[in-house]
Amino acid sequence: MRNSYTPEEQIILNKIGKRIRFFRLESGLSQEKLAFACDLDRTYIGSVERGERNIAVINLCKISSALKIDSYQLLKTEE
Amino acid sequence: MRNSYTPEEQIILNKIGKRIRFFRLESGLSQEKLAFACDLDRTYIGSVERGERNIAVINLCKISSALKIDSYQLLKTEE
Question: Theoretical Cys-Cys bridge with A66: which of A38, B14, B21, B76, CB 3.0 to 4.6 Å?
Fold first, then answer.
């Protein structure tokens, strides 16, 4: 897995990963159930939540749909 | 250039491309000037605006920083 992000980039990825995790837990979903709901791999969801992936918008939208939220909420800073 | 998106995915990419274009024009920037400001290629900016790229969050944040807006605004539907 490529992991050559600048500190600034890593902050962005960590923030998004935490937002996904926050909304996933709020929905009462496991990583496995979320992965199933958005047709992605559980290990992929895990790596996104850990800030290891520069996730692209299509997967971001798949995840937000499965979490029943608007995709932009995953990029917002405040809760 | 890979262009095998589903209709739903294409709608997402078109929407984001239009949002970027909207904010770019509002800032009075050419594609070239925006590209320079965010250290990306002008042809890349063009292809994102045309909905041809599944842009990842790091580039989305580079573009929003250069446009002096919050990245989540590029995913919002309303103006």
Answer: A38
Name A68's Cβ contacts closer than 8 Å, sequence gap at least 6: A27
pLDDT in tens, A18-40: 999 999 999 999 999 999 999 99
How many helices (H) and strands (E) are present in chain A, helices listed first? 4, 0
Mutant choice from B38, B75, B79 vs A, greatest count of A C-beta within 10 A:
B75
Secondary structure (3-state) at B56: strand
The ipTM assigned to this model is 0.91
Return the residue matching tokens 């990029």. Answer: A75
Contact residues on chain B for A66, CB-CB shorter than 8 A: none
**What's the whole-model pTM score?**
0.92
